[in-house]
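User: I've been going back and forth on whether these two constructs are worth ordering. Before I decide, could you fold them both?

Assistant: Sure. I'll take them in the order you sent them. The first construct and its structure tokens:
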Amino acid sequence: MAERLVYADNAATTSTSPAVLEAMMPYLTEVYGNPSSLHQKGRIAKAAITEAREKIASLLNCKPNEIYFTASGSEADNWAIKGIAYAMKNRGRHIISTKIEHHAVLHALESLEKEGFEVTYLDTDSEGRVTPEQVAAAVRIDTILVEVMYANNEIGTIEPIREIAAAVKEKNPKTLVFTDAVQAVGAIPINIAELGVDMLSLSGHKIHAPKGIGALYIRNGVRINNLIDGGGQERSRRGGTENVPYIVGLAKALEDAVGGLDEGKRVEAMRDRLIDAITAIPHTRLNGPKEGRLPGNVNVSFEFIEGESLLLLLDMAGICASTGSACSSSSLEPSHVLLAIGVPVEQAHGSLRLSISRDTTDADIDYILEKLPPIVERLRAMSPLYNG
């Protein structure tokens, strides 16, 4: 039995906060009406959705009728990409993205390529960044969409989205800009009105709301096809009975996250303590930038060891961590993100992602730094390539 349990996999999912659960409970119990029903319980449920939409729009600085609720960030990503592609295919079939996107984006793009769309996948620098000039240079007259994630889920790199959007619009005003902000929302300040993007996705379970709720911002005037048809919910753009308690929970979680952004400095300090101590271990590299990364993200690669073995021993010590994206953790292939930024394959196999949150304590950091170095040394001692 481990001495304690330290959860350091918040980029995969966060806990549902007590405050969020409390806000949801009435809509899981007595206020269970269908928001499309005309009776009292239905009207109360509908009012809760309206209030949540207004709260989220206020926190992100956009209009309430530009927020659409989805079942996940992946659904929002797919809707933005495929919806625009199908709606604008007669004007052009060229899309721009990067090589380090989440699989929800990459697989959606691969699906479109099979249907005759052309996708340009931009390289990044060694820290995972693309420049506005680089993106604009790839824009053509038939480019209908540019998608660049706001912050990378594996290495935490924050992209210059506002500058990218401005450069794209200057090159071709008709090209739409979408950013997958699933990791960024709630972690760093987001002001949609200042960003200049046409669409933005977010997910509840990254900000202490439950799994199974997300949202897509769609700027008024953007023509987009539906991904899910049904009974006319979400102003006839996304079919399916609305998940009222989870929508309420998402609004509360975002409110608490935005209200607690000052906590980011404390989280950054813990992150930097982890980075400084871990990279002091010989034959260790930091993946992603030291500055301009998400407050809670640490991603390192250890030479001469396998990430899977590292995770198992950390788990036995009571430390929950990841080798990369949780969505592909069952794959034995090295991270596409690490390979894209130039990490050698053998080092990519020895990667570790520690993602902390406002719930993380200094004692948790102490425990990680107590347990991790001897585990790394133990695994290296078993490697025929390591000579100490």
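The second construct, handled the same way:
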Amino acid sequence: MKTILGTLVAIFGIMTLATGCSTQVRESAQSGILADGEFSTDSINVLPFSRGKFLKIDGSSTVFLISYEAARRYQQKVSDAPAVAVSFSGTSAGFKKFCAGETDINDASRPINPKEIKACKANGVKYIELPIALDAVTLVVNPENTWAEDITIPELAKIWQPEAEGQIENWSQIRQSWPERPLNLYGPGKDSGTFDYFTEVVVGETGASRQDYTKSEDDSLLVEKVSKDPNGLGYFGLGYYAANWNRLKSLAVDNGQQLSQPTVNAVKTFKYQPLTRPLFIYVNAENVQNKSELQEFIEYYVEDVRKWVPFVGYVPLEKETYKLVSQRFQQQIIGTVYGGELQSEVPIEQMLQRESVF
């Protein structure tokens, strides 16, 4: 199976930008999501442009899969659709660009945090917060791992807390019944919203983590590493596991009340806790006003996403919840209902009833 490697930029609708241009610039691009769930990679020529409609999306590698598919489908459906550049640099890195006014949309695997709220406000960047799907942060091992079938939240905290660095280096140190084998860890880097979320709910403090592990904001790289390491243990969003289920093994998570695999039912019924989370896009509100192509793309995105988001590995919200999300966009409600806090245990429809802060 081919996979995405390195930081990606997928650009759609390039021919709309070609008029009056000459110099060619090569970009790495994901050429398509195949029917069997595999990814393929390709390179395309990108022509610099002096005129033409163009939308720019950055942020979470988790949400990248959804926004990429939205852009791809939109290009197929709308004959005069704008070119859409979809890239990922991690939720945190994406917010730096978004709050500086450099992008139209930021994909986010966690809510905007207080520091980012302050940065957007300081730069006069008003935003519309739109939940689009549910995710399950998935713990994965190599299929050759025959000893681990499940893991507890305290065990995860023991592994990933800062104090574990240089200390917890063997599988037998996690659970006595597990073998004397080296423990090789793989996970997102500090610019990742998945890193922020995981450290908050598992370790108890955002950003608190051991640093002696292989880290990357590119989840596909983490997939590659674990799939080739019989002693590996990693975590990332459900979509990357769903696309690589035959190369990885997921661990059931024991939260002290129940043991759950990251299934659609466990996510929808909030049994897969505390690792179920909402996924978001944040849209530049001023650009919505000034760029009709952005408004039309988001209207399509919010209306259509529930139909196909399962095919990229994530769990759709309830139909009524999408109506609330659509109303939020149509009414151009500025700010966040999460106020910089995770609050993953509160249903999204309840959160959307709260007053926004900016």
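Notes on the second construct follow. The first helix runs from residue 61 to 77. Residues 1-9, 14-51 have pLDDT under 50 and may be disordered.
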